[in-house]
Inverse folding.
């Protein structure tokens, strides 16, 4: 294993996906919501507390489902993830929002050894990650390793729907990062078959804008499909 | 698993691994996190960071997400990542949309190492 250069230091590391709805009565849902409790601290300020501590502070990324709101985080601890949301505007302000979180962490060794108490286990079995490049400028097109697993519809300026040829078991986690200067990606909350990505300009009055996006989709199969290998 | 006829949602990456990095982009730029030893960081200027994989991946690196630790910032990628390089640019989100900004951020990457690296 000495030459296994890309070996990770974390053992039994896992990805967890949570949808945080911060508008109205704040709530969390998704395949791994059962592992966390949510506290709505204030406008656009949310704390997720892990019911079982991670071995080290996890890594957290997010994609906003609320147009013209971006999120950031305070440095997480082994049990607490604090995410905040703010508007894109001349004078940014805290704002309630909906966003998907992808949390990557590893367990305490004592829990890895004892499967029966393996309480940091994701509900998703056989999850997969798809990678796409969405070129939304000119004639919209999909490319990348998994482009043939989706069909693309250009709904209008800066608005694209990707329909999975085969549905996921549940709505997947979506990450979309712009490859175009001063355009930020947002999404409509995905369904099991449709991922919808939007591009908005960063300006005092953000507007829909065509852009190129780097997209990753993390989801799980229907059991009837994954059982057949 | 590769293109198995019945396995309808394919997973073409041969041996993917998630890499987690914390980029300290304020002050003297530095890398932290469990996978920091796999990458080198170059600070190209304000809000402009290049992550270089020490051993190139088999296919292009995928970015699973980027999360700022600093308020009012947004990110974009300078170009589609290659098998070894991911370049991240950070800017203000205060509506001007033009000011590069040094920020601290977490980034999750997925890489596929060449099969030869797994077999040893």
């Amino acid at each position: 294993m000495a030459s296994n250069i890309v070996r990770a230091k974390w053992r039994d590391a896992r990805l967890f996906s949570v949808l945080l709805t911060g508008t109205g009565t704040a709530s969390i849902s998704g395949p791994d919501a059962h592992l966390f409790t949510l506290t709505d601290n204030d406008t656009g300020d949310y704390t997720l507390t892990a019911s079982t501590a991670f071995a080290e502070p996890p890594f957290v990324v997010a994609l906003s489902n609320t147009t013209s709101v971006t999120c950031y985080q305070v440095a997480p601890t082994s049990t607490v993830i604090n995410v905040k949301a703010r508007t894109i505007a001349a004078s940014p302000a805290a704002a309630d929002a909906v966003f998907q979180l992808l949390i990557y962490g590893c367990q305490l060794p004592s829990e890895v050894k004892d499967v029966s108490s393996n309480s940091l286990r994701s509900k998703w079995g056989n999850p997969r990650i798809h990678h796409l490049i969405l070129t939304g400028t000119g004639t919209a097109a999909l490319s990348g390793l998994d482009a043939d697993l989706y069909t693309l519809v250009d709904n209008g300026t800066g608005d694209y729907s990707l329909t999975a040829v085969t549905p996921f078991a549940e709505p997947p986690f979506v990450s979309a990062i712009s490859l175009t200067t001063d355009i930020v990606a947002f999404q409509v909350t995905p369904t099991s078959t449709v991922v919808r990505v939007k591009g908005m300009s960063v300006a005092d009055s953000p507007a829909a804008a065509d852009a190129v996006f780097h997209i990753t989709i993390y989801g799980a199969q229907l059991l009837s499909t994954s059982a057949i290998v | 698993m590769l293109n198995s006829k019945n396995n309808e949602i394919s997973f073409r990456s041969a041996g993917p691994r998630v890499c987690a990095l914390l980029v300290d982009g304020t002050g003297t730029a530095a890398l932290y996190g469990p996978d920091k030893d796999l990458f080198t960081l170059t600070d190209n200027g304000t809000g402009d960071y290049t992550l270089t994989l020490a051993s190139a991946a088999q296919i292009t690196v995928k970015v699973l997400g980027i999360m700022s630790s600093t308020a009012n910032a947004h990110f974009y990628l300078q170009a589609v990542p290659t098998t070894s390089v991911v370049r991240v640019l950070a800017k203000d989100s205060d509506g001007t949309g033009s000011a590069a900004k040094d920020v601290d951020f977490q980034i999750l990457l997925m890489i596929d190492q060449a099969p030869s690296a797994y077999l040893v």
Observations:
- The two ends of chain A are 28 Å apart (CA to CA).
- The mean pLDDT of chain A is 86.
- The first helix of chain A runs from residue 109 to 113.
- Residues 127-226 of chain A form a domain with the Immunoglobulin-like fold (CATH 2.60.40).
